[in-house]
Amino acid sequence: MLIGIVDTDLLDNGTRHPNLALMKISAFQKEQGNTTRLVLDYDELKNYDEVYVSKVFTRTNFPQDILSRPNIHYGGTGFFFDKAPGLPEAIEHHMPDYHLYDEYVHKEIERGIKRQHFRDYIDYSIGFATRGCFRKCNFCVNQKYEKVSRHSPITEFFDPERKYIYLWDDNVLGYIRWKDIFAELEETGRRFQFRQGMDMRLMTEDKASILTHSKYFGDFIFAFDSLADKPIMEKKLAIWRRYNNKTTKLYVLCAYDSNDVSDIVSIFERIKVLMSYRCIPYIMRYDGWDLTDLRGMYINLARWCNQPDFFKKKSFREYCEANGENSATMDYLRSFEAKCPEVGKNYFDLRYDQVSPCF
User: Fold this and answer.
1) Residue 105 needs a FRET pair 20 to 30 A away by CA distance; which of 84, 240, 269, 320 works?
2) CATH topology assigned to domain 1-92+103-109
3) Cβ 194 vs Cβ 167: under 8 Å
């Protein structure tokens, strides 16, 4: 059979990440003697015997009518959120088809997009060593799990021809035998990274030491989702900084518990903590942030924090001013500060390079 593979996230606004489930489906179908192709135009769906459609993000747009076609199979968190059915075991534990996106990547590079943009497609082995998390955060797609469990050995998805490894583990530091994971990663001889954001609240001296001395690649990424976690985050960040002085980023969730002034204060308070531990915030805006009265502030905060070169050298106010007196950026700042002058007084002039370190 001729099998069509549809990455809806790629076809909507594009994505830097290949779809792991689709790569596993493609590899399994090829093993059955079928031919698979990445579909880049919905009008071509009629040309395939069977079509597998996946969507990771809930806000990804696609033609809804395709789901009723008899040859369509669809899945993913973008369709079902935390109720997304898993892949059959034979597919879930199959080596991914790392060449599914080759033709697409080749054409994009030919038309002038830099190879660097496609490193995730070209240079990395991708998989899960563990699955699950015990936190059950309401905003997360992993609420169905009770604990962190071993999912697969690294060898299950490791391609020796690829230079790096990245993992989508939900909470690797919550796995009781976490040391086994790092030992297996070290055995590959490859540099690796975890993309989901590790759980800083679980940091220990042992974990900080092993992470620091591992072949970790790129920025260390954790999360600081709630201001209520400030006491434990400060305690664990202090442990981390006793061992590691490398670039450390933390996802800062916003517009979830609320999307009013208290949320803006929460963001700035978390940023202040991270500055004091020489960490970089990465603003993660929950769906619907752009429909609120504070849309402009969420835009400004994300643009300031999510570009480290700006964040490290300029206060929030200085970043906004650098956009020009007549810019929308300054309009957002002035409007907010007129209503909430104390927030501006307390936070707008904080600078990463001037806050005294706490370690």
Assistant:
1) 84
2) Rossmann fold (3.40.50)
3) yes
